[in-house]
Amino acid sequence: MQKVNITSRSLLIREEDVHGAFADNNWAETNQGLAYFSKQNKGIGWLVESSDFSELIKRASEKRHFDDLTTAYRVFNTEGDGFPGLTIDLYNEFLVVSFYNEFVYSLRDEIVSACKAAFPDVVGAYAKIRFASDLPESSKLYGEDAPEPLVILENGVKYATYLNEGFMTGIFLDQHEVRGRLVDGLASGKTLLNMFSYTGAFSVAAAMGGAVQTTSVDLAKRSREKTAEHFELNGFDVSSQLIYVMDVFEYYKYAARKGLKYDVIVIDPPSFAKNKKMIFTVKKDYGRLIENALEILSDDGIIIASTNASDLPKKKFRAMIEDELEAAGVEYRFDEFYSLPSDFATSRKYDASNYLKVYVIGVKK
Ligand code: SAH
Fold first, then answer.
1. Fewer CB under 10 Å: which end of the chain, C or N?
2. Mean pLDDT across the stretch 256-280?
3. Best CA proximity match to 198, nearest among 167, 182, 219
4. Which tens digit of pLDDT belongs to each residue from 169-185?
5. Percent of the chain at pLDDT exceeding 70
6. Residue 277: exposure state from Cβ atoms within 10 A (0-12, 13-18, ≥19)
7. 353 falls in which pLDDT band (50, 70, 90)?
8. 3-state SS class at 284
9. Which class does domain 2-47 fall in?
10. Atom of ligand 1 nearest to the CA of 179
């Protein structure tokens, strides 16, 4: 194995951390431990705990404990489970394996064997290619085809997932605690507006938890049928819920003009999005999302403010929100905070792995 000297302050190895020549897409024995070289985002390699996938994946799988009411969750989370660049999600009896660099993908046969041993009940798996490549984003890795949709359970709620449609499956598993809070009744007896609703997962969770009506807003046309599918799956009459295919800023204007008010507003945008009119970034635009939400929030309301922007520290995110609350002159209380759930294990040696930040804020006008 090649020997390389590095001076890396985290698990991520950057160009400037390496002293001397090295072979790319290969293992390396470094002065800081076992590593591999392969380009990923801002790095050129990673320090790993071990190269033994059987052991790593078995150990990770034994740490996850969910009851029968939750059948989809993360079973292996990159650096949190000792091997940066790889994630594995369980969806009933299927796996979704995401490869974040070329080297991890080259090890797929070993990873598949380890998965088969650790998850004997799994009947099929899909691969997601999360690095620049000519390979398709999504493809079969082994075994049977998953049904379309594959209906999973989370906190007893049904969600329709599609395991072979690009990167996204229809649900972001990292938000299961926040959806769980809604199922437990955070919006019970209240109206809820779900901004950037995607497949309406927060809306359905809220409706299951007793919300009187939900409104889902997303720019993507597919969001209407996907959201309707989620309501139908859980026994709701879709016509009792509102779904808008619209830009969120347009919807804010529309709602303000109509004098609409909502008791709970969920704001969970992508960290970056481009549409015909503008480029949205959380860093630049989150304040405006809060400002506009305050105009259509009930006098005694709740804002669920969420971001997955890994380059926005928690303190800064909170300060952005506070600035808007102060400027609006409302009374407010940061009641609850959620970060990644325990199945999305993180590593203290790599800060960016803890990207999710969700505040539940009580607001009185
Ligand atoms: N909150 C969702 C996930 C959001 S994913 C959930 O928990 O499941 C991001 C979504 O934002 C995508 O569905 C995308 O279509 C939508 N989106 C991006 N820009 C938008 C805009 N300007 N207005 C409305 N929706 C937008």
1. N
2. 93
3. 219
4. 999 999 999 999 999 99
5. 100
6. exposed
7. confident
8. helix
9. mainly beta
10. 7
In this prediction, residue 20 carries a pLDDT of 87
Q: In angstroms, what CA-CA distances link 281 with 73, 175, 246, 307, 318?
A: 28, 20, 18, 11, 16
The pTM score is 0.96
The three-class DSSP label of residue 79 is: helix
End-to-end CA distance of the chain: 64
Cβ neighbours, 10 Å, residue 320 = 19
The one-letter code for the residue type at 327 is A
Long-range contacts of 57-64 (CB under 8 A, 24+ apart): 57/81, 57/88, 57/111, 57/114, 57/115, 57/117, 57/118, 58/114, 58/117, 58/118, 60/88, 60/345, 61/118, 61/119, 63/342, 63/345, 64/343
Instruction: Indicate the domain borders of the chain.
Output: 2-47, 53-151, 172-364
User: Ligand 1 pocket check: which of 174, 219, 245, 289 to mutate, most ligand atoms within 8 Å of Cβ?
Assistant: 219
**Which residue out of 198, 264, 307, 356 has the highest number of ligand 1 atoms within 8 Å of its CB and is therefore the one to mutate?**
198
| Contact predicate 170/160, CB 8 Å | yes
The whole-chain average pLDDT of the chain stands at: 97
- Whats the size of the chain, residue-wise? 365
| CA-247 nearest atom, ligand 1 | 23
Find the 154 Cα to ligand 1 centroid distance in Å. Answer: 21
**Which tens digit of pLDDT belongs to each residue from 306-321?**
999 999 999 999 999 9
> Considering the domain 172-364 in this protein, what is its CATH number?
3.40.50.150
- Reported as a pLDDT band with limits 50, 70 and 90, residue 322 is very high
